[in-house]
Amino acid sequence: MKRITTALLILFLTTAQFSCSDNPADSSENEFYTKTIERIAENEFEEELIEKAETEYPPRDSVLAAVSPWQQELVPETEYWWYSRYEGVYLPFALTIDAIEYYESFIDSLAAEEQDDYYKTAELEYEAKVSFHDSFKIYEQGYTNPTPDQLLGSFEEVYVVEMTLGFRFECFVHCLLGASKSRVAVFNKEGNLLEIFHDGATPQIVA
Questions:
Q1: Could you tell me the keywords of this UniProt record (predicted)?
Q2: Per residue in 52-83, is it b (16+ CB within 10 Å) or e — as a string?
């Protein structure tokens, strides 16, 4: 299979001071900032399907329903993809190109910072791939052996774009955020979008 990919792996090593208390201790650690982005397609048609999947936005009302009342006014009129924040970092409601670029820029900004007084690491992994299915069924997430009542959709002769994102940000004892998100877009043989699945609030690890 021909793989048309865009892959980035950036490793920044710098010296930093970190502290467990209000009084910084003299110590040095390496800071790691990595990002890997991969889009797998066999041809131009499949590349276009990935682009369509990344630029399709959920209904704004569905985003507002997941957003805290005091944050609803922050949701833009267009290109809305996040629903909450933790330690100033947006959490994705939908995997769109804006979400991917946001986490890319977040890691780039950390890498560009000068020495700080605590230890940070951040990692981004994103993959989008296309496959054709004579028959395709999709179920609710989180079940190893889903039951028929957990079936979300059933399709015949479709292209499926599967998108997965993993993000981790840690600043020593001060904060920890780990989030994973997926999105599945189903297209007919002509490339028309039929349905998108797994948009919504994002499971996360925080500390």
A1: Signal
A2: ebbebbbeeeebeebbeeeeeeebeeeebbbb
Say which amino acid occupies 78. T
Backbone phi, psi, residue 128, to 5°: -130, 130
Q: What are the pLDDT digits (tens) for 101-160?
A: 999 998 888 777 755 545 678 889 999 999 999 999 999 987 888 899 999 999 999 999
User: Of the candidates 33, 167, 27, which has an alpha carbon nearest to the alpha carbon of residue 111?
Assistant: 33
Is the Cβ–Cβ distance between 81 and 96 less than 8 Å?
Answer: yes
In angstroms, the CA 58 to CA 43 distance is: 27
Closest residue by Cα to residue 37 from 123, 109, 121: 123
- Where does the chain show beta strands of DSSP type E? 15-18, 25-30, 32-40, 82-86, 89-92, 121-139, 151-170, 176-187, 193-197, 204-206
The pLDDT score that the predictor gives to residue 172 is 65
Closest CA relative to residue 56, chosen from 82, 90, 79: 79
DSSP H or E run through 101: helix 97-112
The tens digit of pLDDT for each residue in 67-95 reads 777 777 777 777 789 888 777 788 899 99
Q: Which of 151, 91, 112 is nearest to 33 (CA)?
A: 112
Closest CA to 163 of 142, 133, 186: 186
